[in-house]
Amino acid sequence: MSEQQIDWKNIKKIATREAYGQALVQLGEDNPDIVVLDADLAKSTKTSDFAQAFPNRFFDMGIAEQNMIGFAAGLAAAGKIPFASSFAVFAAGRAFEQIRNSVAYAQLNVKIAATHAGISVGEDGGSHQAIEDLALMRSLPQMTVLVPADATETKQVIKAAAAYQGPVYIRMGRLAVPVLFAENYQFSIGKANIIREGQDAAIIANGLMVAEALKAAEVLFAKGINTTVVNCASLKPLDKDTILKVARQTGAVVTAEEHNIIGGLGSAVAEVLSENYPVPLYRVGIKDTFGESGSPEELLQKYGLTSTAIIQAVETVLKRK
Amino acid sequence: MPNVQEMARLIRQDIITMLAAAKSGHPGGSLSAADIIAVLYFSEMKIDPQDPNWPERDRFVLSKGHAAPVLYAALAERGYFPKEELLKLRKTGHFLQGHPDMKKVPGVDMSTGSLGQGFSAAAGMALAGKIDNKAYRVYCLLGDGEVGEGIVWEAAMAAAHYKLDNLLVILDYNGLQIDGPVQEVMNSEPLADKWRAFGWNVMEVDGHDIDELTASLQAARNTTGKPTIIIAKTVKGKGVSFMENQVGWHGNAPSKEQAEAALAELKGGNNNV
Question: Given B116, B127, B129, which is nearest A71 (Cβ)?
Fold first, then answer.
C-alpha cells in the first residue's frame, strides 16, 4: 500500500462545491422533502443546479444569512430537510447565533452547506476566507461537522448529511481539487478513513490537505519514511478509535487542515491524544492569522498549506519521538 | 371552549404564581400578552393537546421568548401538561425552561429566547405550509423592543416576498423594554408605516380587547397574497396595578407578599382584566 503513487500531473480536478451542486440535484430527485436556500450566491455555491431542476423547492433569501438560517429552522420544524448555503464566512460567521439557538439548541434538521472555506478562496482576500468556521461549529453541542476532501467524498457526505437526523455543517471549497477517491470509497459520519499505511508517523488531514498529505507521504516514502495517512472528514463526531490506533502504531502525529490551527482538526486531535495517548504532535494549518488576496496556489504556499510543510512537520515530530 | 376573558384572567394568575415560585423571570411582558395568548389558545388556533405534534395543527412561535410564563400558563390551562408543573418553572431538572424549549415542552413549536429568531423560524414554517399546500396557519408573537433586531426586518421582507398569507404576527406593543421606553431606547416609530412599507397587511387593535383581537384575526384570514401583522396596543404588567407600565417589572419576579397582592387583585373581579 505504501508504494502507491498518484499521477498528480494528470489527476482530474473538481471543486467540492461542484460536486455539492450535483449531489443536491440527485437528492432532490430521491427525496421530495429536500429544500434548498441560498443567500444570493447560488451561482457560486452551485445550489443554482438545484434551483434549475426544482424551482419550487429552491428559495433565494437574498443577502440575509441570519434570516436564511431562521427560515431553514422553521422549514425543518415543519418536516422539511433544508440545505442552506452561503460562503463559510457568512454561513458560520454572520449567522452563528441563529445556528446556535435556532438550529443546534433546537436540535432541528438543518444542513448548513458552506462553500468557499479557507484561504483557497484566493483573490477575494481575507474578508472572505473563513479560517475559523470549524472552530465555531465544532464547539456547538448537537452539531455534526463534515469536511470532505474531494468530489467523490462530497457526494457521499451530502447524502449522509441528508439521511442523518439533526444539524450538520458541511465545509467545502471554491478551488478545483484532485479527485482522490474511486466511486467505491465509503464515507460514514463519525468514521475516519486510513487511506495509506506506514509505521513511522501518521498524518491526519481533511479537506484539500488530504491530497497534500498523500503527496507528502509519497515523498517521505522515497526518503525511507513510511507514513499513515488518515482522512478525517468527520471532524465531529471525531473517530477517536482510529486516531488513537494510528497514534499507537506510529508514535508520532501530524495534522493538516486549511483552517486556523486553533479550534479545528489539529485541536481536536490534540485533545484526544493528550487525554488518552500523548505522542509528539505537530499541527499544520493557518497560524492564527487572517488571509489576503492572491491566487489560491500562491496563498496555500505562503501560508504553509502544502505537502512541503507536511514533510517538514513529519521530520520534526520524528525527531521528538 | 371556556370563556376567553376568564382564561386570560386565569393565565395572569398562573403567571404570578409561577414567577413567585421561580423567584426570577419576566412578569411585565407576560401579563401584557395574556389576552392575546388567551384568544389564540382558547379560540383561534386549531390545535390538539392530546397530539401536540399533529402535522396539520396551527403553529405558534413565541418570538419574545422571555414571556415564556404566558405561554406555559396557556399550555397548562389547555391541557398540554399538568398545572402543577408551572411551579417548577426554571428549576434544575424540570422541563419548563426560562425560555421556551421545543424539545422539552409539549406544545412549544419553536425554541426561542434570542430575540428576532422566532419570527424568522415562524416564517420558515409558513413557507413549509405553502410548499406542501397545507391549510395550517402560523402565529407569532413579537415584542416591540424586539423589532430592534435586524433579523426581524430580514424576515419581514422575506415573508412578504414569498406572499406568506398563512403567517400572522401579533406585535405586543407595550411600549417598554429593559432600559426604558422603546421610543427613548431606540425609536421604532412609525411602526405601522414600516410594516406597510415592507408589504404587510397591518391592523392596529387594543391588545386587551378580546372581541377586537378576535375580529382582527378573523379579518386576517381573509387577506390573501401578503402576511398580516396585528399591532396590539398593550399595557406592560396589565392586570396588576403596581406592575402596570413599570419598566422595573420587565424581568423581576414578585416576592411572596407582592404575589399575594397581585393575585388578590386578579381574582378580585377587576373588570378591566
Answer: B127
